[in-house]
Design goal:
The chain has 4 helices and no strands. The protein has 154 residues and is mostly helical.
C-alpha cells in the first residue's frame, strides 16, 4: 500500500513538474515572440520616419531651387525641368507619408507629418526673398521637430 501511495505521489509530482515546465516554457516563448514583433515594428517605424524626413528634405530643397529658377536672371536651370522633379519628389514624399501613417499609432504625429508636407509645398509660392527665407527656416525647423516627435514613438 505504501508503495502505491509513493508511486502515485511520484507520478503526480512528475506531472506537476512537467506542467509547470511547460507553462514556463510557453510564457518564455511568447515573450520572445512579442519582443521580436515589437523590435520589428520599431525598426519599420524607424525606417518609415527616416524615409519621410529624407523625402521632405529633398522635396523642400527642390522647391527652393525652383524659386531661384523662376526669380533669378539668368536662371540657374530651366524651371520646367525643376518643376517636373518637384512633382516626382512630392509623390515620393506622399508615399513616405502614407507609410509613416500606416505604421504610427500616434494621430498627432500623423497630422504633423501631413501639415508639414503642405507647408513645404507652399515654400516656393512667394515673390519675396525674405518671405522665402522665412518659409525655408520654418520648414527646416518643422522637419527637425517632426524627427524629434517621431523619435519619441520608436
Amino acid at each position: 500500500m505504501e508503495a502505491i501511495i509513493a508511486s502515485a505521489i511520484a507520478v503526480l509530482g512528475t506531472l506537476l513538474g512537467s506542467g509547470i515546465t511547460l507553462g514556463v516554457q510557453r510564457r518564455t516563448t511568447e515573450r520572445g515572440h512579442q519582443f521580436t514583433r515589437d523590435e520589428k515594428l520599431r525598426q519599420e517605424r524607424l525606417d518609415a520616419y527616416t524615409a519621410y524626413a529624407a523625402a521632405l528634405i529633398n522635396y523642400r530643397r527642390c522647391l527652393v531651387h525652383l524659386w531661384f529658377c523662376t526669380h533669378e536672371q539668368p536662371p540657374p536651370e530651366a524651371a520646367e525641368a525643376v518643376q517636373i522633379r518637384a512633382y516626382d519628389l512630392r509623390s515620393k514624399a506622399q508615399e513616405a507619408l502614407f507609410r509613416m501613417q500606416m505604421l504610427t499609432d500616434n494621430e498627432e504625429l500623423s497630422r504633423k507629418g501631413e501639415s508639414l508636407l503642405a507647408e513645404i509645398t507652399a515654400v516656393h509660392k512667394t515673390d519675396n526673398r525674405s518671405e522665402l527665407d522665412q518659409r525655408r527656416t520654418h520648414t527646416r525647423d518643422g522637419i527637425a521637430h517632426l524627427v524629434r516627435a517621431a523619435k519619441q514613438h520608436l
